[in-house]
Design the sequence.
């Protein structure tokens, strides 16, 4: 998944300057530190569980997601063969999840990490302990210029100790479909870690510290792609090479040099694996008795690799066998083995795109001598399966049906049940429980992604409506119109025509009229029926540049648009048929439309604050101090009033069309700001901010028009990079929505009366 990394660094710097909590620090010591949240009542002492109970206003809230059901790249599924029903999912920007055995929903395990530890939402590897199934380890680090750590847990990921690393990881870099952390199956204290730039590392104390394997001959940076190198790409142990309780002597390693290595003395010496192909990166390596299986790809990126191969190496004879099912313009993501039938093997493509289907699953029942695809016929029209995506109906992208997936880099069979498979795609997780019916009857696949929300949000707009609750704009899958935030919508806005939607707005008194901007041939789009249908538009004539931002006036009769190249504001009164540019030149303006006056618009630029009440025929500059970096929110309570929020100085209220004295409210900084339903009929509307107060970054609420603020999130619910978008429900008091950079749209609801 893509992400807004530059903006994150900038915002993190601003918050640090404002005095926010720094979280855990990567000091490069290589020793574990306990992730014990502060600021709430600890439920444990002396090394017990770090889980805590929230206090104050935070005790009123429960935390979940606005339902999209997936939306991002699940890079790996990890079953623990030591405990039935125990399975984890790793993602590239959304952190680590564990599937609940009873519901079954996915439970997020990394939500405690805040923006300073946002890097830990990129998971580059997961290792599980089959002898002590409560233990799980995650290699966490998103990019090569961010810190990394190994997260260690002895209670299924509910709590973590953190082992900082002196090198980076790449949970959202190319080749993230591989798994760079593996536990020795014979010695649970031994973990091998494949770094991307600094060679092979090992821990002999269950992840508490790591040492470089100096005997390993390469750091694996011989092949590069789009500026990335790949280091150690795959690790596999031969459990037959040692006794239980002793480290495995034989270990296979894939490298970014596109050379395979093996040791037969537990890492004391290494040698090239003779006969291995040298034109590929290894996605995965598996040891099955005397045979070692390699999944190779020609290029690292999971989007569209054009070539790959599956090979089997016999460790006794040294013979290599090409077992590739076909070679038609794609690579291979994974190979998997029936735990109860060694002759039955499955393989999945990666980077295959066709008119009706994308990636494809193959099955062999004769140990890879022959293969059968799960669909065939002209243009893949003959399906041997059904696909139930009703839990995420938008997955069809407006086509006749969804497909089995793309970017499939990991394909796993339940070690306790040959019928059950699970695999991640670029947008969801699919699941089947009748795999062994292949060849006898239809295989049934269904979405298995409830609770795992992994989208990157750019903008949110709460609707003043009983029917429509929330509009969203996001990376990769455009955005949605939610009428019920607990149900995934039937379709994306415009069926996902925009690869990235940047901004979205709706009319205060005409919530069914909304407009959005995004990347695409037609970067503007308007709906007049609450997101059911959209009219796609070009920019105003003669204006190039980015997609820009858009604002709908209060009654939906006027839509305003601008971008950095426009040097001003354009408006349309006929749903985009024609555009008119306002006379005043305004550089990179931020806009808010008054909630009562159709032709009143508030504009903020680096040169000051401007107000027009006549559709731009004239502008009045506000003649008083205006803080830097403001975002504007028109007041839903009074015409002529507008709220200003800024990470540089908090929240301000400007009244009476700029003629009233600016009122500064009592919060240090505000990255995002929203106004929601009042507590009761005698109270003002509720204010919310994501920012800093009392030197503490968090999500805040004010019940008295900004005079006092309470933090409503606790230290177990921080959600990484937040603050780019915030909306408050206009019908339900206390309910808010905010965007994240990988954990979807968070929904906070009140569960108790103060």
Sequence:
């Amino acid at each position: 998944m893509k992400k807004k990394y530059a903006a994150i660094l900038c915002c993190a710097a601003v918050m640090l300057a404002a005095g926010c909590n720094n979280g855990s620090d990567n000091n490069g010591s290589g020793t574990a530190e306990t992730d014990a949240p502060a600021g709430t009542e600890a439920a444990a002492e002396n090394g017990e569980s770090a889980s805590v109970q929230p206090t104050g206003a935070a005790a009123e809230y429960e935390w979940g997601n606005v339902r999209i059901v997936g939306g991002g790249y699940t890079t790996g599924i990890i079953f623990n063969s030591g405990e039935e029903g125990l399975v984890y999912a790793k993602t590239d920007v959304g952190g680590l999840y564990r599937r609940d055995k009873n519901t079954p929903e996915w439970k997020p395990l990394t939500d405690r990490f805040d923006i300073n530890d946002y890097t830990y939402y990129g998971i580059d590897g997961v290792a599980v302990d089959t002898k002590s199934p409560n233990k799980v380890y995650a290699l966490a680090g998103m990019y090569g210029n961010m810190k990394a750590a190994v997260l260690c847990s002895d209670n299924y990921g509910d709590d973590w100790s953190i082992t900082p690393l002196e090198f980076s990881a790449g949970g959202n870099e190319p080749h993230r479909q591989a798994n760079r952390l593996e536990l020795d199956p014979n010695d649970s204290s031994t973990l091998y870690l494949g770094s991307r730039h600094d060679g092979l590392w090992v821990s002999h104390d269950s992840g508490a510290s790591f040492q470089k394997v100096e005997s390993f001959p390469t750091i694996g940076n011989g092949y590069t792609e789009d500026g990335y190198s790949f280091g150690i790409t795959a690790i596999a142990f031969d459990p037959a090479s040692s006794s239980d309780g002793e480290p495995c002597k034989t270990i296979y390693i894939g490298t970014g040099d596109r050379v395979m290595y093996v040791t037969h003395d537990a890492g004391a010496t290494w040698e090239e694996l003779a006969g291995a192909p040298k034109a590929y990166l290894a996605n995965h390596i598996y040891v099955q008795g005397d045979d070692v299986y390699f999944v190779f790809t020609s290029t690292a990126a999971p989007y569209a690799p054009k070539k790959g191969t599956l090979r089997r190496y016999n460790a006794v004879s040294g013979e290599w066998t090409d077992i590739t099912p076909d070679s038609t313009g794609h690579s291979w993501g994974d190979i998997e083995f029936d735990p109860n039938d060694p002759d039955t093997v499955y393989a999945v493509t990666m980077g295959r795109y066709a008119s009706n289907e994308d990636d494809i699953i193959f099955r062999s029942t004769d140990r890879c001598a022959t293969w059968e695809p799960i669909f065939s016929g002209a243009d893949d029209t003959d399906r041997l399966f059904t696909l139930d995506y009703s839990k995420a109906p938008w997955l069809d992208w407006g086509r006749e049906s969804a497909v089995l997936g793309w970017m499939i880099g990991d394909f796993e069979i339940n070690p306790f049940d040959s019928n059950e498979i699970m695999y991640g795609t670029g947008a969801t997780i699919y699941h089947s429980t009748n795999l062994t019916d292949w060849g006898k009857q239809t295989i049934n696949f269904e979405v298995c992604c409830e609770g795992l929300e992994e989208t990157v949000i750019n903008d949110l707009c709460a609707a003043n409506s009983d029917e429509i609750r929330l509009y969203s704009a996001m990376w990769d899958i455009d955005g949605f119109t939610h009428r019920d935030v607990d149900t995934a919508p039937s379709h994306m806005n415009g069926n996902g025509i925009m690869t990235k939607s940047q901004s979205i707005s709706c009319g205060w008194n005409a919530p069914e009229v909304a407009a959005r901007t995004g990347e695409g041939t037609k970067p503007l789009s308007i709906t007049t029926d609450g997101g059911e249908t959209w009219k796609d538009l070009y920019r105003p004539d003669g204006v190039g540049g980015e997609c820009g931002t858009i604002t709908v006036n209060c009654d939906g009769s006027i839509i305003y648009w601008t971008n950095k190249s426009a040097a001003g504001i354009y408006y349309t009164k006929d749903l985009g048929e024609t555009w008119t540019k306002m006379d005043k030149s305004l550089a990179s303006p931020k806009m808010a439309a008054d909630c009562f006056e159709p032709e009143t618009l508030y504009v903020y630029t680096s040169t000051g604050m401007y107000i027009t009440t006549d559709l731009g025929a004239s502008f009045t500059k506000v003649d008083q101090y205006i803080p830097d970096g403001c975002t504007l929110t028109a007041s839903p309570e009074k015409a002529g009033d507008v709220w200003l929020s800024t990470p540089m100085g908090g929240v301000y209220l400007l009244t009476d069309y700029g003629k009233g004295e600016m009122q500064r409210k009592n919060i240090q900084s505000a990255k995002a700001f929203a106004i929601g339903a009042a507590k009761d009929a005698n109270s003002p509307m509720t204010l919310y901010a994501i920012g800093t107060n009392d030197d503490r970054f968090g999500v805040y609420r004010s019940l008295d028009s900004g005079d006092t603020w309470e933090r409503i999130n606790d230290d177990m619910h921080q959600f990484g990079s937040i603050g780019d978008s915030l909306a408050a429900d206009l019908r339900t008091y206390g309910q808010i929505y905010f965007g994240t950079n990988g954990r979807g749209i968070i929904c906070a609801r009140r569960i108790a009366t103060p």
Observations:
- The longest helix spans residues 5-18.
